[in-house]
UniProtKB/TrEMBL annotation:
Name of the molecule in the record: L-threonine 3-dehydrogenase
InterPro entries: Epimerase_deHydtase, NAD(P)-bd_dom_sf, NAD(P)_epim/dehydratase
PANTHER family xref list: L-THREONINE 3-DEHYDROGENASE (PTHR42687), L-THREONINE 3-DEHYDROGENASE, MITOCHONDRIAL-LIKE (PTHR42687:SF5)
TM spans (from-to): none
Gene3D superfamilies: NAD(P)-binding Rossmann-like Domain (3.40.50.720)
Originating species: Huso huso (Beluga)
Organism placement in taxonomy: Eukaryota, Metazoa, Chordata, Craniata, Vertebrata
């Protein structure tokens, strides 16, 4: 039968490291066992307090890795830590190129046992949890979004806690709502999103931070802006227009936008997003005054990005056919992020301005087109 020991200050147990007390208490004997209040009530063998987990040679599992962001992050992590130390996973079939580039496994985040097996068999130390249904597709599939984004997260959190993983979960500009300050939006402010996506991300931020404070889970979360990439497609979000405009500009020189021309949203080039994720994952825990940070880069409207594209493709013609769902989501989101805490604590700095982002996207989309023809 499982019993639970609660550490109280001054007791003999409080001289040992305990999940409930995190790293505030000196570790006396590495072999000491302690019970956690993990929701699945598993016995946890403590061998390393969070700050001594070796970050120089992690073994990484990425869930939901075949979406817009996972493959590029795996490429960057593999460069740093070796091909076989980074496992991509998803419930979709990988392309030949992805399959041949490094380890890939099937993993449904709703299947707790399979995830647990994967983590144990592969001695995973960092888990990057990318599986999610994004804002627009989530509104069209609320029940599924609730399962994947909330139940899936609970599985991952429990596994991270039981196996003492460093857990990275991205949040989003979508974690804010119409009552949040929008220009700029600070890290700590009112968060009352009106989408299942946003609600699930606020839940992820709060429960992750709670597990950090209560059990010492090394939970790390960045709120990403809309991410702009050339060689991977966005997965059904509100910011997807800002990727499609580049493909349409190159292919047909016309673009029909579903947002109003003056809808300002925070955006970021995918390589800035990947670099931010790696730098944040590598940051010493002692430098982090928060566990959830905004990261900003650029902020633009459809008419501003179209104007910048026109400096390369003057013939580009943009029409506007509004999508009421995505417009109302965008109208409730931040217009600009305040990311001063990330800049101060772990040195975050974006590389791509709007002109650089536009030049790079057009160059990449054209190169892709030539390769395909
Ligand atoms: N792309 C962005 O602009 C952006 C911005 C902010 C935050 N984020 C966050 O970053 C993460 C990755 O985003 P993305 O753009 O790559 O998303 P995406 O929609 O492109 O990919 C998500 C992946 O999750 C997978 N998935 C769905 N259900 C699953 C399940 N049950 N088990 C395992 N995998 C499942 C899908 O097959 C898909 O490949 C998400 O959590 C998202 O909320 C993305
Ligand atoms: C912003 C982000 O979370 C995603 N691209 C979406 O629009 O839903």
């Amino acid at each position: 039968m499982l019993s639970v020991r609660v550490c109280s200050p001054g007791s003999a147990a409080s001289l040992r490291f305990c999940l409930g007390c995190t790293n505030k208490i000196p570790l006396m004997r590495e072999s000491t066992r302690c019970m956690s209040w993990s929701p699945r009530q598993l016995r946890v063998q403590i061998s390393n307090p969070p700050d001594t987990v070796k970050s120089e040679h992690p073994r990484v599992l990425i869930t939901g890795g075949l979406g817009q962001l996972g493959v590029g992050l795996a490429r960057l992590l593999r460069k740093q830590y070796g091909k076989n130390n980074v496992i991509l996973s998803d419930i979709k079939k990988p392309s030949d190129e992805v399959y041949n580039s490094g380890p890939f496994v099937y993993a449904d985040v709703l299947d707790y046992k399979n995830l647990q097996e994967l983590v144990i068999n592969n001695r995973i130390t960092w888990l990057v949890h990318y599986s999610a249904l994004l804002s627009a597709i989530g509104e069209a599939n609320v029940a599924l979004a609730r399962r994947v984004n909330i139940t899936g997260l609970h599985n991952v959190l429990d596994i991270a806690l039981e196996n003492r993983l460093r857990l990275f979960v991205p949040s989003t500009i979508g974690a804010f709502g119409p009552t949040s300050p929008r220009d700029p939006t600070p890290d700590l402010c009112i968060q009352r999103p009106r989408t299942i996506y946003g609600v699930s991300k606020v839940h992820a931020e709060l429960i992750g931070e709670y597990f950090h404070h209560k059990y010492g889970l090394d939970f790390r979360c960045l709120r990403y802006p809309g991410i702009i990439s050339a060689d991977t497609e966005p997965g059904g979000g509100t910011t997807d227009y800002a990727v499609k405009i580049f493909h349409d500009a190159v292919n047909s020189k016309t673009f029909d936008c579903y947002l109003r021309p003056d809808t300002r949203l925070p955006m970021m080039h995918i390589s800035d997003c990947h670099r931010a994720t790696l730098e944040f994952l590598q940051a010493p825990a002692g430098q982090l005054t928060l566990r959830t940070y905004n990261i900003g880069a650029v902020s633009f409207t459809p008419e501003e990005v179209a104007a910048e594209i026109r400096s390369h493709i003057p013939e580009l013609r943009v029409t506007y056919t509004l999508d009421a769902v995505r417009q109302s989501i965008a109208d409730s989101w931040p217009r600009r992020f305040d990311d001063s805490n990330a800049r101060r604590d772990w040195g975050w700095k974006p590389s791509f301005s709007l002109p650089e982002l536009v030049s790079d996207m057009l160059r990449s989309v054209r190169a892709q087109r030539e390769k395909e023809s």
